[in-house]
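Here is one chain, start to finish.
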Amino acid sequence: MSNSAEQSNIISPKTKSESVWDVFGYLFYIGSIIFLIAAWGTLPDFGLFIILFMQFLERHP
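Its structure:
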């Protein structure tokens, strides 16, 4: 039997700076989504450019 099944998880509380950075990350993520929703209609049509660029990235990661 594996010893990992018998071990308990160590739960350490987050520090204040970790909590602040978590909140900052969540706000940035939500803000990015809101910005994309608001600006979606004004974005230029780069369909062909995106397809060509993705082909390049798939070949040369």
